[in-house]
């Protein structure tokens, strides 16, 4: 399934968290002349690395990439993400003024204060994310985000 807003297709890769696994995956993708347009990497307590990788759909043959990645010895499982609603993004937005967070269409799930700076945490689905990111960019506030 494609997102009509930016035509990115996602795959989920589970691999052994061995030295060089990220390098092997990235090199395989690079050798095919593909570009990674979005990526998140997390680790679990069972020694596994979980990659969520996004590619522009008009430039990439997802099934070919999945077939090649499945040949890597440390890849345990790989799947195409068909339901984009499963993809969530955590945004961590920083401001000196707590009231700045009231200017967004989405409300934070939590606001914490760390040494005179407020951090608002927003959890958004894939479709809400694009609108929210535009609001953030207009606001000029600093932020970090992570796909989950």
In words, what does this structure look like?
The chain has 148 residues and is of the alpha+beta class. The chain has 2 domains: 8-83, Alpha-Beta Plaits; 87-147, Alpha-Beta Plaits. 22% of the residues lie in helices and 40% in strands. The protein contains 3 helices and 8 strands. It has helices at residues 21-31, 62-69, 126-139; strands spanning 8-16, 38-43, 48-56, 75-81, 88-95, 110-114, 117-125, 142-147. The strands form 2 sheets. Strands 2-3-1-4 form a 4-stranded antiparallel β-sheet, with helices on one face. A 4-stranded antiparallel β-sheet has the order 6-7-5-8. The longest helix has 14 residues, at 126-139. The radius of gyration is 17 Å and the shape is elongated. The model is unreliable at 1-5 (pLDDT under 50).
């Amino acid at each position: 399934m494609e997102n009509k807003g930016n035509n990115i297709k996602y795959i989920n890769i589970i691999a052994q968290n061995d030295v060089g696994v990220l390098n092997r995956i990235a090199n395989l993708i690079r050798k095919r002349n593909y570009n990674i347009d979005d990526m998140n990497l997390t680790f679990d307590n069972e020694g596994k690395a979980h990659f969520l990788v996004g590619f522009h759909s008009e430039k990439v043959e997802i099934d070919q990439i999945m077939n090649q990645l499945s040949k890597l010895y440390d890849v345990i499982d790989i799947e195409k993400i068909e339901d984009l609603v499963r993809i969530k993004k955590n945004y961590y937005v920083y401001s000196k003024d707590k009231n700045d967070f009231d200017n967004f269409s989405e409300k934070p799930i939590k606001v914490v204060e760390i040494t005179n700076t407020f951090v608002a945490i927003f959890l958004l689905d894939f479709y809400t994310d694009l609108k929210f990111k535009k609001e953030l960019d207009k606001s000029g506030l600093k932020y970090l985000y992570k796909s989950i």
